[in-house]
Amino acid sequence: MTPPRTPDELHRFGYLGPRGTFTQMALDAWDAAAGREQVPFGSVDVALAALRAGEVDAAMVPIENSVEGGVSATLDALATGDPLVVIGEVLVPITFVLCARPGMPLGEVRTVGTHSHAWAQVRGWMAEHLPDAVYVPTLSTAASAAALGAPGDVMFDAGVCAPVAARDEGLEVLADDIGDNKAAVTRFVLVARPGTLPAPTGADKTTVVLFQKEDHAGGLLELLEQFAVRGVNMTRLESRPTGSAMGSYCFSIDFEGHVQDARVGETLMGLRRVCAEVRFLGSYPRADGGRPGARPGTTDADFDDARAWLDELRA
Amino acid sequence: MTPPRTPDELHRFGYLGPRGTFTQMALDAWDAAAGREQVPFGSVDVALAALRAGEVDAAMVPIENSVEGGVSATLDALATGDPLVVIGEVLVPITFVLCARPGMPLGEVRTVGTHSHAWAQVRGWMAEHLPDAVYVPTLSTAASAAALGAPGDVMFDAGVCAPVAARDEGLEVLADDIGDNKAAVTRFVLVARPGTLPAPTGADKTTVVLFQKEDHAGGLLELLEQFAVRGVNMTRLESRPTGSAMGSYCFSIDFEGHVQDARVGETLMGLRRVCAEVRFLGSYPRADGGRPGARPGTTDADFDDARAWLDELRA
Amino acid sequence: MTPPRTPDELHRFGYLGPRGTFTQMALDAWDAAAGREQVPFGSVDVALAALRAGEVDAAMVPIENSVEGGVSATLDALATGDPLVVIGEVLVPITFVLCARPGMPLGEVRTVGTHSHAWAQVRGWMAEHLPDAVYVPTLSTAASAAALGAPGDVMFDAGVCAPVAARDEGLEVLADDIGDNKAAVTRFVLVARPGTLPAPTGADKTTVVLFQKEDHAGGLLELLEQFAVRGVNMTRLESRPTGSAMGSYCFSIDFEGHVQDARVGETLMGLRRVCAEVRFLGSYPRADGGRPGARPGTTDADFDDARAWLDELRA
Amino acid sequence: MTPPRTPDELHRFGYLGPRGTFTQMALDAWDAAAGREQVPFGSVDVALAALRAGEVDAAMVPIENSVEGGVSATLDALATGDPLVVIGEVLVPITFVLCARPGMPLGEVRTVGTHSHAWAQVRGWMAEHLPDAVYVPTLSTAASAAALGAPGDVMFDAGVCAPVAARDEGLEVLADDIGDNKAAVTRFVLVARPGTLPAPTGADKTTVVLFQKEDHAGGLLELLEQFAVRGVNMTRLESRPTGSAMGSYCFSIDFEGHVQDARVGETLMGLRRVCAEVRFLGSYPRADGGRPGARPGTTDADFDDARAWLDELRA
């Protein structure tokens, strides 16, 4: 199976479903997905497995929340198994509503269903307004709305979900914007099979996972120096257990620049030489359009000049 | 309220309940908790809030899993709010069983209830043996066993939990040791209010959370150099979002040594000077008893000698 | 013999003679030497030996020239033998004249006597104006003037020396200001026996010689990190052979700050721990009065705050 | 004028004369100079000027002494002016004799002539055996022997020079091997015009002079990191004043490896990007034949592998 070579050739988009989640909102924000087939999956794992199997051409999954941190399922699914690459990112502001079947007053809510990540983000509001509410975990925020929206018994009185999910299920909103952190944002990435490399835009980001040669003191410092000495800025660094033993970590890192940039290429080669494994997870345009400040001596022109000079020395 | 000053003075121990979880196993492994009052709490947050309020003298909570990574709820609850300190750690090997009410054959299991972290650790086994099973989230692994053990309707056919929980609830074990990673270990920490500082043993660990002065490129490198230049080894590093904005992180770090060690003291002072905030989360004996290799020039004697020399220069 | 404890107690000043050298000009610029006994010595070695023997209380010697570099004799004499300390520095602009016995025309000069360092600084002028002149080495620039000023035979037709030397010897100046580099400056240091430590002024410098524990790759990098991590700026770094083998070096370093400054104290202690030997050569006011920009987190107040915080953690 | 392209094409060799100096001994040790024309020059400057002018094809000059340190004249002449490159190095053990005209007893020596560098290396012997001897500077050690060997008046009773010079001039040796450091070695380099690049041997050295972009704190640290991050070992580092102002330095550096080595090439390009100027002074076989220990990840094969991997990522 030949992978699609350009974003335009992506026809089927998978996403972490069901409909009504923040992930669907991220997919809606991706222009090239408009009018294409969109397939919800029950988990990040299943969505990425379907992508690896060729059932979809790309998959939108959450990777990081500004309040809750990295999404382990996504980080780990990308770090192992057949290679996948990120080809784009979307930032979605997170707004939660408390909703219930029509007629349920706020004062009578005893049990609240939602996804554990969402519950973590509304704990403050709950402590103030529903201090005695019992939490019931659901598979997603949308699943809590869907359960309330469907006929029959449900295990909780109210749900916490995105406004759109409450609306779609015909639920009543008991309270708006109940997130403890009003600036909460979740970052989603569009993942594809290798072979799709977005062109550099000048405002790009690259994602890698680094496995150290051996777990030695100062090892991380050495890795970071590979970035620093080429003037490459990191924007995210997370350690993740490799699973082999307590205390054995790999590092999931985002940094500014595109694999086609000279400074990024040299950084990646340097990492490749000192790491046991460097897993390249793609270069793609930044959602915020931010361009790194140019550090002296790190532009492509600087690298070209240095290469020409070296070639002359060696001639 | 004066906090207890020594481990012996800890009388009431909270833990992440219910009974039958791995956290209870960790507490069982803590000798000083034997015969003392043990209070289960429904979440890490609630347990630590009770500790802060003085309702218990210490609380055992999970902080890190060798497969799933850091426990966000614990990391974040320690990083913010009134200060707490870790006074000990326990490593518990993680073994999962699939259990059901007596009489349920494996072949008829359609739905499986467990905690999402446990589900993540048995996905491989499930894909092989119960590929069509539907996952139902529960608040804890023990909660899935408790639901099956209680009379009445239950939302799933089988549960995934610790062997002890299945036994306590009188359930039948359909499959033993179903974790995908047989070496899985979870690290638990015993947390107390400040004022309890275990004495140095020579095999100690210290935990801190570092907030950078500003989020600048190379900032993490500078922080790590504070450790490197004093010969202090890190054993865990995790970034966590500060919540203020996407891309703003603090760093949760474990490192070898005790706050009473000279090299650790100077490292902490260095971090204090360059960070916006250093949150000290305690020095405590390592569960594995490992002693760091002595790097030349970093023993207390080396520091004493250097101090005496400096005092002479200044005299 | 008790060493003088304050600059005021210095009564006898040695210097690199004879009279009429730039070193005497440096001594003239040192207010506290005015009206005190001034003793010229034939070499840096002899001057410092006399200081060590207690024959003088201090000695003015050149340490660095902005054109010719470090003065090896001084650097090496300070780096070995009984300890001495620098208690002050003087910057002297260097101006050379070409002089001869009255009646000698420029066009007839065939041989030129001067010190080798001076000759190196007028090579450009000589190549242009006296391309065929033969160089005759003398022990000092003043010695060339003295030879011409004395009766009897002399081995050269003209000398290169300071204007004051030519005038004192009654010589005729054939050409003024013949140095190739008009901005040439020589830095002189006033050296004393240990026990004299000038008080901090806020614009101070400290000098050390560092001997590495073993000559390993990256060794210098480690030493420099001891400075960097405490925000201490170096202003001079010179490698000098230790004499034990080709490729074995020590490092002579000047840096901003006073041994009484907290950041300098910690840097020195760090160096002491990682070096085979740290030779402290004094803290003294900077001749240029320059004050380092305050780096955040490196003031004495920052160190005091960090110490108080640590003490509280340890309590 | 086309420069000679290989060592075999070097026909005329200049050297720091006169005959009988240690430099001539270095040239004698250079096989390819045997039977070729050998031209002594009166100073390093003149020898290198002749080389630049094409009057000789190569020049042997001292660059470093294991006791006295770098030879400023050579370092500075290479660092400025038309480019020259080192194409080889020679290590010469330094042995001094005290010699005089036949019939002069040691006990009657009142004045001693020699080059200032030699005088510095026999100070200890002199202090013990001829404490009252007066030093008379000469242009070279050989010049002191030549003066004694020639008829007529001479300004000193005895000279300090190489054994061969004393023998050639028919002088009597009053004392053998009088150097204070019996392991003293001087390193000489054979310099040529650019265009002559010795092939890599696997045991090579490269010399550069680095001019910083601006004289900022931590600047040297950044330069050294360019070496460290590619696993390149320095064997000599000397600061030299640029002459523009007190405190403005360039750095003269030798390091292991050949410009054709991948790790050296990338290091040089990195330096080129961050420095105001990188002056390449040649790659050449090491006189001691030492081969650097292979650091993991820094062989040419490692670089080739990393490049192939990157090319694949970018395809």
UniProtKB/TrEMBL annotation, chains A, B, C, D:
Catalytic activity entry: prephenate + H(+) = 3-phenylpyruvate + CO2 + H2O
GO cellular component: cytoplasm
Protein keywords: Amino-acid biosynthesis, Aromatic amino acid biosynthesis, Lyase, Phenylalanine biosynthesis
Pathway it works in: Amino-acid biosynthesis; L-phenylalanine biosynthesis; phenylpyruvate from prephenate: step 1/1
Domain Prephenate dehydratase: 12-193
Enzyme class of the recorded protein, top EC level: lyase
GO molecular function: prephenate dehydratase activity
Assigned EC number: 4.2.1.51
InterPro entries to which the protein is assigned, alphabetical: ACT-like_dom_sf (IPR045865), ACT_dom (IPR002912), Chor_mutase/pphenate_deHydtase (IPR008242), Preph_deHydtase (IPR001086), Preph_deHydtase_CS (IPR018528)
UniProt site (Essential for prephenate dehydratase activity): T186
Domain ACT: 208-285
GO annotation, biological process: L-phenylalanine biosynthetic process
The protein's name: Prephenate dehydratase
Gene: pheA
